[in-house]
Design a protein that fits this description.
The chain has 286 residues and is of the alpha+beta class. It has a single domain (4-279), classed as Clavaminate synthase-like (Double-stranded beta-helix, 4-Layer Sandwich), CATH 3.60.130. It is built from seven helices and 16 strands. The chain has helices at 36-49, 61-69, 143-148, 152-158, 167-173, 180-185, 219-233, and strands spanning 4-6, 13-16, 23-26, 51-54, 90-93, 123-130, 138-142, 162-165, 189-192, 194-196, 203-205, 211-214, 239-242, 249-253, 257-261, 273-279. The strands form four sheets. Strands 1-2-3-4-14-6-16-5 form an eight-stranded mixed beta sheet, with helices on one face. Strands 13-7-15 form a three-stranded antiparallel beta sheet. The chain has a three-stranded antiparallel beta sheet with strand order 9-8-12. The two termini are 35 Å apart.
Length: 286
């Protein structure tokens, strides 16, 4: 660990950050377009490590959109996330309209972005704009390992099981009511519980805060099973905790990771502002 080794392309190097997941990319300025070999090498590193960290970046909103778009098709956020001037970029913030910290930190429950879509999000890019002096970390759980470390008998039992993900349910659990437009835009979606990754072929456990219930089971036991699987998946031995530094840009694979914001700072005293872009994925398959 922490040994810099050459990447596929000579224009950057990789520094692995954890045995669980995550690597640091060294030598790229994300304000500049990447040539095709570099794009391909970055994407291969993304598949290998599931999360990439680019340090010391200074991206404007349009520059972040341009960087993200080199790896796929950007998608708009939910209406409640479109308070910025760009619908393709969501400002993740604990500040009110006056720029004063509210004390409220969102996204503290484990989830995969847009898992309630027919084609759940492929990747998320998050850029640190304002950070508290300490804390405000983001945690990531490796869902490949979550599936692969289940006992063989449990994996056999869960073969072919499908899980329904629901935006309405996750908002309800957060104490919020969605509009009728949101409900029509994001109806519940069924996905394989052991989700095959479209690029690597490995299967990943697909649960999180948007997971509503298991098809074919009554709601209560289905919910209990999901919660037990999430507890297994997010054990500290399976989690990488990213400690943000100014200018960090991180890009992670929603198809095989869960993430959550860690409320380990005083959100009523300090600002935490990040810019978020997402790439559309592909429909899940058996």
């Amino acid at each position: 660990m922490n040994t810099i080794v050459p990447a596929i392309a000579p224009s950057f190097a990789i520094n692995r950050l954890s045995s669980i997941l995550a690597a640091e990319v060294i030598g790229l300025d994300l304000r500049k377009p990447l040539d095709r070999p570099t794009q391909e090498a970055v994407y291969q590193a993304f598949l290998q490590y599931q999360l990439l960290v680019f340090r010391g970046q200074a991206l404007g909103k349009e520059q972040q959109i341009a960087f993200t778009g080199q790896f796929g098709t950007l998608e708009k956020h939910m209406p409640c996330n479109q308070g910025s001037d760009l619908s393709l970029l969501h400002v993740v913030s604990n500040l009110d309209e006056r720029g004063v910290p509210t004390g409220v930190l969102g996204s503290t429950r484990w989830h995969s972005d847009k898992s309630f879509r027919a084609a759940p999000s492929m990747a998320t890019v998050l850029h640190a704009v304002q950070l508290p002096p300490e804390g405000g970390d983001t945690c990531f759980a490796n869902m490949y390992r979550a599936w692969e470390t289940l006992p063989v008998a449990i994996r056999a039992e869960l073969e072919g099981v499908r899980v329904v993900h629901s935006w309405a349910l996750s908002r309800d659990n957060a104490g919020k009511i969605i509009s009728e437009a949101e409900r029509l835009d994001a109806p519940p979606m069924s996905h394989p519980l052991a989700r095959p990754h479209p690029d690597t072929g490995r299967r990943a456990l697909f649960v999180g805060a948007h997971a509503s219930h298991l098809e074919g089971l009554p709601l209560a036991p289905g919910r209990a099973r999901i919660e037990a699987l999430e507890t297994h998946a997010t054990h500290p031995s399976n989690v990488y905790q990213h400690r943000w530094a100014p200018g960090d840009v991180i890009m992670w694979d929603n198809r095989c990771l869960l993430h959550r914001a860690l409320p380990n700072f005083d959100a009523a005293a300090h600002a935490r502002v990040l810019h978020r872009t997402c790439l559309r994925g592909t429909p899940t398959s058996e």
